[in-house]
Design a protein that fits this description.
alpha/beta, Methyltransferase, Methionine Synthase (B12-binding Domains), Chain A, domain 1, Rossmann fold, 5-stranded parallel β-sheet, 9 helices, binds cobalamin
Length: about 220
């Protein structure tokens, strides 16, 4: 259980776009022994989600969203390091290529997914954000990856997840390299529609999905 006051302060630091305070609170939480995953999900993420709502309703503008995103990235970066350091170094369990799709700059959620995967002993090749589908598929082939995981936060960029399915089909790799999709506008319905192998609502889901997909691999 994390102290409610700390969670509230974390959320407020994001709403205020206060990067220094967000970082300080992240360190303070770690010193107090909080679970970093829980701290991200119950403290910092609610802050950025509220920022999203305020942006949508026109109460705040893009520069404020950018400041809030910087604050989250700072805090989540510190907490992600702790998550990865706590990882069970099993290795060899699964190799995952992760990326935010082309033309999409949202990478906070993907970063959390990557860290939780590393903490669970999976090998993660994180290609970053705004990554062309061809590069994602080529990397997966070159690296002998088991799974491609993509994040899309814009309705206009989700189509690149479909493009990845088509590229894999063209190369006869459907089923051999499994695919999982995520990001705020992405749903199970979209996953089924484009023929991806799995959809994850959050980072914990993403980890569960990797384990499930590894059991279904055909090669
Ligand atoms: C922060 C933010 C930004 C930041 C991003 C900074 C960064 N480095 O990421 C900045 C300011 C750059 C930005 C820019 C823009 N943004 Co913006 N942004 C957001 C905001 C507020 C939060 C996103 C976020 O980080 N959420 C927190 C994380 C933790 O959640 P998440 O990403 O969903 O990830 C979780 C799950 O989805 C899942 N998951 C994520 N990836 C994956 C992958 C896999 C494989 C799996 C299994 C699971 C999984 O696990 C994660 C952890 O739980 C959202 C609001 C919202 N409701 O989403 C708008 C939002 C996404 N943005 C929006 C828009 C419109 C834009 C801009 C076009 C604005 C503009 N006019 O320029 C630009 C586009 C830039 C671009 N080309 O990408 C809209 C999108 C609307 C739409 N329908 O497409 C939203 C919804 C805001 C709104 N309500 O209008 N944005």
């Amino acid at each position: 259980m994390i102290d409610e006051k700390l969670l509230e302060e974390a959320k407020q630091s994001v709403l205020d776009g206060d990067k220094e305070l967000a970082a300080k609170l992240a360190r303070q939480g770690l010193d107090a022994g909080v679970d970093p995953v829980e701290f991200i999900e119950k403290g910092f993420v609610p802050g950025i989600m509220e920022v999203g709502d305020l942006f949508e309703s026109g109460e705040i503008f893009l520069p404020e969203v950018m400041m809030a995103a910087d604050a989250v990235k700072e805090a989540v970066g510190i907490l992600n390091e702790a998550i990865e350091a706590s990882g069970k170094k099993r290795g060899g369990a699964a190799k995952v290529v992760l990326a935010t799709v082309e033309a999409d700059l949202h990478d906070i959620g993907k970063g959390i997914v990557a860290s939780l995967m590393v903490a669970n002993g999976f090998e993660v090749i994180d290609l970053g954000r705004d990554v062309p589908s061809q590069k994602i598929v080529d990397t997966a082939i070159e690296e002998g990856a088991d799974i491609i995981g993509t994040s899309a936060l814009l309705t206009t960029t989700m189509t690149h997840q479909k493009e990845i399915e088509e590229l894999l089909k063209e190369k006869g790799l459907k089923g051999k390299i499994k695919t999982m999709v995520g990001g705020a506008p992405v749903t199970e319905r979209w996953q089924k529609k484009i023929g991806a192998d799995g959809f994850g609502e959050n980072a914990a889901d993403a980890v569960r999905l990797v384990k499930e997909l590894m059991g279904k691999k055909t090669n």
